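Hi R.,

Here's the chain you asked about this morning:
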Amino acid sequence: LPVEGERNVLITSALPYVNNVPHLGNIIGCVLSADTFARYSRLRGWNTLFVCGTDEYGTATETRALQEGLSPRQLCDRYHALHADIYTWFRISFDYFGRTTTPQQTRIAQDIFQRLLARGFLLQDTLEQLRCESCGRYLADRFVEGTCPFCAYAEARGDQCDRCGKLINAVELQNPQCKLCRGTPVVTPTQHLFLDLPKLEGRLEAWLERTWAAGEWTPNARHITRTWLRDGLKPRCITRDLTWGTPVPLDGFRDKVFYVWFDAPIGYLSITANYTEHWERWWKNPQQ
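And the predicted structure, written out as tokens:
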């Protein structure tokens, strides 16, 4: 735990996605640099905590589970153990290697959601999505194939065309097919929840000016952030019509889960919470 009067260092690396076997490139590109710094911090005598874990929700897990004839939970159990074994073999010095599919993750993610809701940072809107009536489900992007509207490639995915590389909205596909049953899905409206990011734009700009003046941002990070602000922040959808994910605790949306990019970053907090019940002393302690 953080110690008053000492230098306390919390280290993480990007959570590796669980649907494959990590290889040397993954380790060099992500985990190894964090491990090196953790070892350095310990040698300096700093109070150091190094946590990581597998990122396990999202449609990529569901897709891989279907390919392997497993449930998403079975797939995650298998690959989480595989990841842990490989990092142990490489002697990566995690203090704790966890995962995002835990009760702590659900509790903390839902708590953050309820706080956003209570403070007026969420809004509802209708999206048009492809729904397969045969399967009785809305189809996530990876569960749809069809003809690319840009280059006419016949096997484009619902999120991107592998031939021309353009990003695609699934409802734009021509001759769409459900990858599960090969039936023809129909465009159907569905309600979703959005982060009301425009509400934060003014406060964010003021905060950025202060932190940029301190000189702690890389030029690349500044450029990307400036681009987002130049174009104006847009509301960002945080729910999905799926079953594999953290449930949305709100009437009218209980058949949905959180979008993995809302949910997964909270994994850093929940993994720390699985390591220690006093996790907030690491994550909510600006004085230390």
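Residues 24-43 form the longest helix (20 residues).

Let me know if you need anything else.
M.
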